[in-house]
Design a protein that fits this description.
This protein is of the alpha+beta class and 127 residues long. The protein is built from two helices and five strands.
């Protein structure tokens, strides 16, 4: 049989242990990027219609001279803590698609889990 003072100390230790470590994940901006569709992009052939069909609406559309840049962004935040120390890390998956004036893909890039320290402060059209 466990004595009451021993049991209360055990409960207190379990509660402290539960509070001393924790982690959390949350979505900050955008939607997950359909990575399985990235190989379906064909430079010189895929059009903006194909891209919208594969990935949906972009997070941001920019005009750069005679081309457009479609940016798909999925920002995440991971936070963890041990006793009195905690750390927060913001990362993003970014797909950029470069279209010519006819709306045909000329290039694209994809980065997964890149550091994004100020991601939570930015809107779709900049700070």
């Amino acid at each position: 049989m466990v004595r009451a003072p021993v049991l209360s100390k055990l409960i207190i230790l379990l509660l402290i242990g539960g509070m001393s470590f924790g982690c959390a994940y949350r979505q900050l901006v955008g939607s997950p990027i359909a990575e399985d569709n990235i190989p379906k992009i064909v430079i010189g052939k895929s059009t903006h219609v194909d891209i919208f069909r594969l990935f949906g609406s972009p997070y941001q559309i920019e005009s750069q001279g005679d081309r457009q840049v479609l940016t798909y962004l999925y920002g995440k935040q991971f936070r963890w803590a041990v006793v009195l120390y905690s750390e927060e890390r913001n990362t993003a998956d970014v797909l950029k698609i470069f279209l010519d004036k006819e709306g045909v893909v000329r290039d694209y890039s994809f980065s997964k889990g890149v550091s994004a320290p100020d991601l939570y402060k930015r809107g779709p059209y900049g700070p």
